[in-house]
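Sample log: GDP-Man:Man(3)GlcNAc(2)-PP-Dol alpha-1,2-mannosyltransferase.
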Amino acid sequence: MMSLAKFITFFLGLLLFLLVSLRVLSEFIPSLLVSLPPKLRLRVNNSLLRCSNNLNRIPVLNFGWKNASVRRAFVLAAIRPSDYTNKIYGDRVAISYYDRKDRESFVGKLGQETKRKIFGFFHPYCNAGGGGEKVLWKAVESTLNHDENNICVIYTGDNDVSGIDILKSVERRFEYRLDSNRIVFIFLTKRNLVEAKRWPKFTLLGQAIGSIILSIEALSILTPDYWVETMGYPFGYPFVSWFANIPIITYTHYPVISTDMLNKLKNMSGFRTNIKLNIKYLYWKMFMLIYRFAGSFVDIATTNSTWTYNHIKSIWPSTRNIQIIYPPCSTESLIEGSNKIDNKDRKNQIVAIAQFRPEKRHDLILSSFSSFIKTNDNKLSVPKLILIGSTRNQSDRDFVESLKKFAFEELKILPEYLEFKTDCKYEDMKNILYSSWFGINAMWNEHFGIAVVEYMASGLIPLCHASAGPLYDIVVPWDDKKNEQTKDEAKYTGLFFKDKSDPDFSSKDASKYSTLSDLFAEAAKLGLSERIEVSKRGKQCALTKFSDAKFEKSWHAVLDEIKTIQSLNV
């Protein structure tokens, strides 16, 4: 125990020393990231003149540690900012064809005052295709729509694709057609440092350190005017503030560490006498304090749900501006499409849309579905279950194969009752939604649940785990006459379940909520007229609370506010 105490003391002392050192360095580092090298215009002009006889000849410049400030200057002066990605030439900066063609104008704008502003979106997995990425790309679109002078930089680690490929994927998956000329992709090389497999021990701490390094790498390639962090890597905030001295906006889907995690650990049997559990608790507690410290650098914190808002508010008490902005769920187009469908034509189908990851609890869905089939005795019509989700990497694809083996070989579910669809097109997903009656979300404490909103907007009745986003924000009683939320439980918009495998399951839950297996039966018993009424209420709720237009309006308010904050700090 003494060696452990010495280690903790040494670690905290080293951390304090580093923080003080960085605070001192922060007094002059911001100017280094944006100040331009001497005679920049002369050097650029000479390079362009040497290539003036052949516009296809590309001048590639290297200003060493000044490359970040030069790239920033080029982006602000460019006819097409997107050309200043680092995809091809890495740290070096190549002058684009359009700026070579209009040499005098381009050179004249370098280092001059401009109305253009660069919003840096830090999202290392921007091509993952999940709900978090939908928020990212709608925020990017809204930022571009807010002001024609806004430029969006995307810091990503998706080095296996190009920026154009990513935008095509965004259009295919989310139907967002973005102004590609004002989007600059900065490809990061150290994303592996934030992957859990990179840190088999002390995973949280390792990923935190990795995110700091990744944030610094992003700043060293191109420094923005505003830092917008949309994926959940908060430990880089102090360094962004110290090194770049720019406002920070966050969109938090769920806290990195929460009081729920601490309480769950503390309530484990034998906690008081188990040294390992006590050490782990202290480790998490220390991590929570660092997380709180990181949050103190945030200017505007936005959250996706009531559950997340409550946690962030308690973790970041010094962050004054915390607000809820529900994610964009494209409810307008989904409702428009579902209104063209005759509900009588919907098939006896249940859909589950979720990335193929263990925490989405596909295994619970499959085992509950199997239990329903086995106990049904042909009393009720067995629906077809369709599992739809994206896969990020080979690990996710292997997980899908394990689920198939579990379903077809162990549970003996017949193929006619179950179908897997991975990485399907958005249009195909919509067609499946429009032809189905029910949608499942089985995750415990799902921070929000965009898929649940998509169910409701498409006219499906959600079958959800009774926790977090689905319980408090989405599947709420709705007065279809007043078009507002109500306390009248008779005007329900979906059904809830609990399971014994829930970390916080209690005897009260067993008496209040059905199991998922029983919920399948309850759903099957609903008559057509009742289904239509529930569907109608759900669509109204989804359109009012979770439309893309509602998100864009709220995001524009954030952009107005952050510019005001910046002007006051100048």
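Observation: Residues 364 and 501 are 9 Å apart (CA to CA).
Observation: The first helix runs from residue 2 to 25.
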